[in-house]
Amino acid sequence: MVPLPKRKLSKGRRDRRRAHDALQNTNLVQCSQCGEMRLPHTVCPNCGYYQGREIISMEKAEKKK
């Protein structure tokens, strides 16, 4: 037999337990092109490069703003 909970956990108790999951630090890496810190596996928001290739042209991005 598999043990099962005797009573249903309330939504508040469940959410209080899960609240700590979002408190972990985000892992940042240094951009190889400009040296700014960015999230891994994403295009650099500062220079627009990803893995040594220009993905977003920053001149076009500045004109749109």
Automatic annotation (TrEMBL):
Pfam families: Ribosomal_L32p
Source taxon at top rank: Bacteria
InterPro entries per the UniProt record, alphabetical: Ribosomal_bL32, Ribosomal_bL32_bact, Ribosomal_zn-bd
This protein's name: Large ribosomal subunit protein bL32
Source organism: Bellilinea caldifistulae
PANTHER family: 50S RIBOSOMAL PROTEIN L32 (PTHR35534), LARGE RIBOSOMAL SUBUNIT PROTEIN BL32 (PTHR35534:SF1)
GO cellular component, one term: large ribosomal subunit
Family of this protein: Belongs to the bacterial ribosomal protein bL32 family.
